[in-house]
Amino acid sequence: MSMHGGGGGAPGGQTGRFGKPRTRISGADESAQRAENEAAPKIPNLLGRIAELFQPHRGSLVVVVVLVLVGAGLSVIPPLLTERAFDEGLFPPDPANEGATTGPNLQVLVWIVAAMIGIYVVSSLLAVWQTWMTATIGNNVMGALRVRMFTHLQSMELSFFTRTKTGVIQSRLQNDVGGVASVLTNTVSSVLGNTVTVISAFIAMLILNWQLTVVALVLMPFMVFAQRRVGKVRARIAGETQESLSEMTAITQETLSVSGILLSKSFTRQQNEIDRYADENRNQVRLQVRQQMTGQWFFALVGIFMSSIPAIVYLASGLLISNGAADVTAGTIVAFTTVQARLLFPLMALMRVSLDLQTSTALFARIFEYLDLRPTIVDAPDARDAASGAALGRVEFENVTFRYPDATDDTVPTLDGVSFAIEPGQFAAFVGPSGAGKTTVSYLVPRLYEATGGVVRFAGDDVRELRQESLVRNIGIVSQETYLFHASIAENLRYAKPDATDAELEAAARAANIHETIASFPDGYETTVGERGYRLSGGEKQRIAIARVLLKDPPVLVLDEATSALDTISERVVQQALDDAAKGRTTIAIAHRLSTVISADVIFVVVAGRIVERGTHAELVAADGVYATLSRQQEHLPTSPGWR
């Protein structure tokens, strides 16, 4: 179980499991969002590259723009028709008596009402159409971008993943790419639609009465100011609420996982975990109440201002009428207050547009930062497949030097002038102290890393001249940390050969000495192994991994400390499986336990990145050097025959 102090925390002085303070920036806070946007990478020609993403949908985008413009324009027509409905339909003037009105003109009123209803219907249909189109375009772009990034990440070298947190990669794929759809659906259409709505409403207000327009615009900033102040409070509380939810999720993931439950039960700390969860739950309840109440105050303030502005407009209208303003009618007042109400929320939305646009560009910048990463290990333009024949399986290092990518030039290289040759079908072992560079050898053979100097050859060819797919297809790797998917045993085995038959699965399992165990399970090969194979023992997982490699049937087998984490009994069973797997193949074994390599054809002793001894077990013991010293330190050698 990984211990991370509770997985982070929220503002307000919260502390982790061991009392260390935790800080986390809330994405709901505008200032924090701006800071996060500023930290985004700077990408040249960012807007042009964003436009390229939407290039395949340019026809649909034009339709969306037209729909937004038409919909925003139509939204201000009903208030103008409202004026006509009052002044010409409900209370038409009496031509015979100036200043008086006659009864309702039903014919005019019917046409006006029909026109208003028609506009509402058309606007609603256009809104549905627009929503469907923006959602389709945005999600198609998002989907294509997600696959593009996932494909690109698959091409990155191993060192990229060793230096980058998995959570960061997942965030780019899920959060950043997931936000692409909202850029079009929300940001772009909102900016365009609100701009047109505000301009159209302002023009309509001027047409109705310019004096009332001045009164409304003078009062509008107070409304916007109140909304922004209350909105900031809500954003801060929403951020704290989200952080609290994240903390509860972290506690749940830590304590309710198999490893977490096992740990808490082993140390009888269940009550401690319950108390942690209960404390955070109380904090969550408090924040939820605050958030709900802040929302109530917000809507109350909105209601007050929404009611106050029309009331003041009524007062201003009364003053204008008292001073003889003939153009202020009942229809004018009703229509004006209707338009003014439509102006408020689009105007407030536009005041936030700069942050929305900045956030959108930062999102794309982080995506392009990953897409611009270039793999350091790529096929040469004239790369070819590994040659078949007698040389297939020959592995050779010629004066190979290697430093890991994050190492500086003045650091001691991990491998320094390493040279050796392993013939096809030969069993070679690499032994030595921890950190000597043994595992690095196993990385360079399949070109998971690139040698800094010298040449690594496979089947007589420089690995840099071979297609990576062809190289890796001829190499099978069994590592100490076996990785199994949360799927059935059969599915895990078929990862090596998707079209393998049941008979082939059984043959591979028998060769790996695991078939009888699998057959004893109620569901046999359809048994679900659990997350990372947790339902299986270490020896069972390792033998399934061996069966998976055998199904691949590679001419070269790399065994990286394949039994070091197993108990003695499991080690012997797995060792027998490895012994069978190694027959007829070139086998490179990275070993910590010398007992597993005593029958190797050749043993290379690696110290500080150099091969200091080489020979058979008997020769090296007789030489009384480093290998003999390591042998004596391991107390005794078992009587098992080793790999073969």
Automatic annotation (TrEMBL):
One of its GO terms (molecular function) is ATP binding. It is found in: Cell membrane. Residues 62-359 form the ABC transmembrane type-1 domain. Gene3D superfamilies: ABC transporter type 1, transmembrane domain, P-loop containing nucleotide triphosphate hydrolases. InterPro entries: AAA+_ATPase (IPR003593), ABC1_TM_dom (IPR011527), ABC1_TM_sf (IPR036640), ABC_transporter-like_ATP-bd (IPR003439), ABC_transporter-like_CS (IPR017871), P-loop_NTPase (IPR027417), Type_1_exporter (IPR039421). Residues 395-633 form the ABC transporter domain. It is a multi-pass membrane protein. Residues 1-16 have a biased composition (Gly residues). SMART domains: AAA. Residues 1-37 are annotated as: Disordered. PANTHER family: ATP-BINDING CASSETTE SUB-FAMILY B MEMBER 10, MITOCHONDRIAL, ATP-DEPENDENT PERMEASE MDL1, MITOCHONDRIAL. This is ABC transporter ATP-binding protein. It comes from Agromyces allii. The lineage of its organism: Bacteria, Bacillati, Actinomycetota, Actinomycetes, Micrococcales.
